[in-house]
Every structure is written in C-alpha cells, then in structure tokens.
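Ticket #4471: structure output looks truncated?

Reporter: J.K.
Steps to reproduce: submitted the chain below (474 residues) through the standard prediction queue, then opened the result file.
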Amino acid sequence: MTFKIKFGTDGWRGVIAEEYTFDNVRRCAQGYASYMLEKGNAGKWVIVGHDKRFSSEHFAAAVAEVLAGNGFKVYLTDGATPTPVIAFAVVNKKACGAVNITASHNPPTDNGFKVRNETGGAIDPEGLKRIEALIPDSVESAKRTPLAQATQSGAIVFFDAHTPYFQHIEKLIDLQPIRDAGLTVMVDVMWGNGAGYFPKLLGGGKTRVIEIHNTRNPSFPEMKRPEPIRPNIDVGLRATVENHADILLITDGDADRCGIGDENGEFVNQLRVYALLAYYLLEIRGERGDIVKTLSTTGMLNKLGVLYGVPVHETGVGFKYVAPKMTETNALIGGEESGGYAFRGNVPERDGILAGLYMLDLMVRTGKKPTELLKVLFEKVGGEYFYDRVDSPFSGDRAAREKMILDAQPTTLGGLKVTELVTVDGFQFKLEDGGWMLIRFSGTEPILRVYCETMHGDKVQAILRDGLKVAGLN
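Returned output as attached by the reporter:
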C-alpha cells in the first residue's frame, strides 16, 4: 500500500529510511512541481536548499532533479543554508518559490520537506492541502532530469546564497556599533546551519563571539534535539557563565528560530523575547506597524499594541498563518511561541539570525543587559509574565480526545477563573488575570502540547497540571 504523505504546519516531516525515503521525497517534489505549474510558474526559477542532517544534500539534489524534470530552473544551494537565507534568496533571485530539506528542531532521526512561495514565506493552509492532493501515489509518476545532465544544461545551478543575505542584513541594521561595543557574545548554533553567521557579521571589532556546536554532527550530541529550549541549551547556558558572556544567542537546526540566555546563564523564554523584540522596534527604533501573533504567544504584545497604538492580529499556530497575515497587513513584526520571529523589511519568514542581531542592538542602544531589559519591559506592561509548556505523546483517536477536551468545561484552572474558550487553533482557555492555558495538537509530531501564560508565577505548574487533566493525560 502506498504511504500517504500528510503535510503539517510547515510541510512534511518523517523518520529517515522509514517513511522519509528518496522515493517519497521525489513524490513530494512532484506534488510541489504540479502545484507551482497550476499557479502559472512554468519555466521559472525555484530555490532548493538543505540543512546538516543525515544525507540532506542528497535529498535536496533529488528534489532539484524532479523540479528540473518538470521544466523548472533550479538554484541549488552550494552547502547547508539557514532557512531565512533560503527565503531571502527567493526574493533576491526573483524565484517563484523554494523547497527546503530540513526537519528544523526535530530529533536526529527525522528529516523534512518545507515549501515556500514567491514571497519567501510559508504557503497558506489551502495551498498546502493542494500540494498534498497533487502528490502522486507512485514515484514512477515523478518526472526527473539527472543532476549531471541538468547542471550541464543549466537547468540546475549551484549558487552562493550567503553573500547577498549579508548585504541585505547590513541594510536593515547598523552592525558597526555592535562590533565596537566590546560585548562577549556566546552563540550556540546547535550543530546547525547558523554556524559562522554571527562571527562573520560581527567580526573585526571589540566584540568577541564564541561559537559552540558549530560543526556537522547529525546525531546532535549534548542535546535531545536542536530546539532552543531547555534542556537542549543547558551546555550553552553553562558556557555563558564560564566565559563571562553578556548574552547567549541560540539558533535551532535550520536557524529560523532564536533562543536567548541572559548574562547569568538563565534562559529567557520565547514569549519574553518576542515582547522584547516588539518593544525594541516600537520604542527604541520608533517604528510603527501591525503586530501578528499566534494565540500561543504572549499577552504582553496586546499591552504593547495599546500603549503604542498599533493593531495586534492573533492567528492559529504556525507561519502558514502568520506569514500571509504579515504580507496582508505589512506588519512590523510577526512571531510565534516556538521562538520564530519575522520582521518588516525582511521576508515574511522566521529569521533567528536577524532576531539575534536585533537583541544585540537593543542591548547596545540602551546600555542594558538582558536582565535589566526585562525589568524595563515588565514596568512597561504592568507586571511580570510567566510561561511554561508541557509536551506529551498521545495515542488513540484524536477526534475523541478533542471531544473530551471540549466537554470538560473547567470553571477554574490552577485556581484562576476561566472567562472564555477560544477554538481558533486547539483549545485556549482565557483566565481572569489576562493569562491563558492552551491545549493543542502538534502539526509536525504525534504530540499534544499544553501551554500557559499568567501573571501569577506560583500558579504556572498548577495550571499546566489542570490542563493535562482536561486533556485526559493526567
């Protein structure tokens, strides 16, 4: 029986050598090619890139062969390349889209197939469904032009995506003050594609960049997966203290997400980072524009929206919702709970490298370290916000579990009164303090996530425990 390829939040991910095989990748590539042909892109250029996972460069070459076989011209990256750099290349090269071979933050056993449109951003949910529907049942239906033949004819061209991206970054931010600031910047690239970017961008001045986990090792030692949250970042946090660094910047496997550790080696959660980045753009740079946030990220953004008089739009989880809304509203910033942030002037795609540079610029312009910046933020939004998340594998029928959650109708969570239930994406229970608890099924893995944010730090774990009970997991 033919394996049915299902697209999740960002495309398709699977276990290498089980469902993630060359044949299935070629089938996926044919589905994407057919979709792009339907969109009137015959004969146009497509960007293809990859990460540092096992055999990613070979899977990328297989995709390029199928696209060439369908009459597209392909720019194939000359090495492992960050997702935001691939996204920028789409715009820079005037391509009609991109395929990126990466499983981002997934475990080392996995690989993935990300798709992008002509903006460099995520394809909307309807487009993803259409690609999925166009994936042929048999690999024999995938048209192919062998790599050697396609490169000889000019249908596939290897290219350097890095240099134009560096030039683009210099237009978005003045890096010289950061280079001259004399900071010690710890960088953990989690064995991924972000290796070398911060040293190249910030070299030549008084600021010192110390990079770890910056070689290729698809088994990802010293972490469970290249996701910029604890415990994966514990080695980097310890190194921050040992090296007396001013900040820890963390990029995930494909460098589209950014994590932060403060000068004391403590993790700054993703919701606080998003609020800091929005504050930086609104207050320090004096810019104005809409904010796009998923419902799983911080209520501090709503407070900032009121304070600075800018609209805040809330979407479902994933950049397949965020990117189209950013494009529609010409948003100043868009982001999600997982540590992915996108910015106006750049492509509507998460960019962990630019986010890290903006955090450094915020430090340099204010003369404050991360802990001091958080104090300023909390004063601005009227108090401290606390967040945590629990991921739990689940089995059984998803629809039955969803009905169980809907039928639970809790009146309190962690002792706080439930004021509203929002079902835009998952089940979000609004709380009396302005906080929330969200139960949501992952779009990329068989995992159920329970998240919460509250201004009562002593109630976080109780809210999560109650959330697990509502979900039938405790």
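Triage note (M.O.): checked the attachment and the full token line is present. The radius of gyration is 22 Å.
Status: closed, working as intended.
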